[in-house]
Amino acid sequence: MDKISEGLKRLQEPGLPNREDLIALLSLEDEKELEPLFLAADALRKESVGNVVHLRGIVEFSNYCERNCLYCGLRQANRQLTRYRMTDREIVDAALAVKAANVATLVLQSGEDSFYDTEKLCRLIEKIKAETGLITTLSIGERPREDYQSFRDAGADRYLLKHETAVPSLYRRFHPDSRRENRLQCLKWLKELNYETGTGCMVGLPGQDNAALAEDILLIKSLDSDMAGIGPFLPHPQTPLAACPSGEVLPVLKMLALVRLACPTINMPATTALTVLHPEGRRKALAAGANVVMPDFTPPVYRRLYDLYPGRTADIEEPSAILKKLEEELNDCGRTLWK
Ligand code: 5AD
Ligand code: SF4
């Protein structure tokens, strides 16, 4: 057996993957050499989570953020961005639109915005659960354990908190006002509180080499994550990383494939960021191990202000357009939609 096949085989054995294998596989650049990796990931995806593509309707209800992550357009120091907060009614209406589109899961996302205190969020979650019955995922950043407990009691089912990068020195460099230890602590609390928990990272951050990406895979595996969002870094002009090169498609696809092999039953979206980077991004991701798509149900007036990275706000597709296109794309490759 050649080195690549041996590495692929070892990766599918139980336990933590071998770091050197991950680095070796991440270092492959040649499309021919990479074929066995993508084929193995696609086969394992089919065997362990099936041909179904799950939909999550995302509603970005506030673009206020109190943090200053160096890569992100929502960072507080970006004074050029017009800020918004949706009203409770607007948020519930957006959730009703998710339900009307027959999508079973809602993701409520915002910057780290303390305007929405525990009380406000709990009332909102209760209202959404009562009016829609949707599976409800929160993606609102780091909070104290008691808050996570209260949201869970109010009916929240899942929580997304990307680890962004597993390497301590990189984490420090990009997050002037948050600590890696606290983020990992939050992820542990969420697990303890019985949330289905999602994490994930960016690919192509300045200074992030293959060894760093291997650490991301090992962390996703060791956290026993139920979900992992993995997308390219895209430099935003109103951030300190404006002049840095953008992430690329192939490294993201390699990461998706390797995470699928290391964590067979994990849920992984084809991220919007990948679709922004490449028009065929979604199809490529779904063929490399991904099994989730997240159409954006934020009302268009607000959607264009949720300016995490460039390209996102102008061209982002309407949920109805995504759903229609998806049906066609999936028909072509023998996959089906799970709403
Ligand atoms: N490029 C790619 N993804 C980004 N995010 C924030 N800024 C960028 C960027 N410049 C992602 C982060 C965060 C999510 C809300 O958006 O991974 O978790
Ligand atoms: Fe705020 Fe999240 Fe952007 Fe960081 S990545 S600045 S926490 S919205």
Give descriptors for this structure:
single chain, 339 residues, alpha/beta, TIM Barrel, 15 helices, binds 5'-deoxyadenosine, binds iron/sulfur cluster
Architecture overview:
It is a single chain. This protein is an alpha/beta fold and 339 residues long. The chain has one domain (36-338): TIM Barrel (Alpha-Beta Barrel), CATH 3.20.20.70. It has 15 helices and eight strands. The protein has helices at residues 3-11, 19-26, 31-49, 88-100, 118-132, 145-154, 168-174, 180-192, 210-222, 249-262, 272-277, 281-286, 300-303, 312-315, 319-332; strands at residues 52-62, 105-110, 135-139, 158-160, 196-203, 227-232, 292-293, 336-338. Strands 1, 2, 3, 4, 5, 6, 7 and 8 form an eight-stranded parallel sheet that branches. Helix 2 crosses helix 9 (210-222) and helix 4 packs parallel to helix 5. It is globular and about 60 Å long. The N and C termini lie far apart (42 Å). The site of iron/sulfur cluster has 9 residues, from loops.
List the helices and strands and how they pair.
Elements: H1 3-11, H2 19-26, H3 31-49, E1 52-62, H4 88-100, E2 105-110, H5 118-132, E3 135-139, H6 145-154, E4 158-160, H7 168-174, H8 180-192, E5 196-203, H9 210-222, E6 227-232, H10 249-262, H11 272-277, H12 281-286, E7 292-293, H13 300-303, H14 312-315, H15 319-332, E8 336-338
Parallel strand pairs: 1-2, 1-7, 1-8, 2-3, 3-4, 4-5, 5-6
Bound molecules: 5'-deoxyadenosine and iron/sulfur cluster.
5'-deoxyadenosine binds near residues 231 and 273.
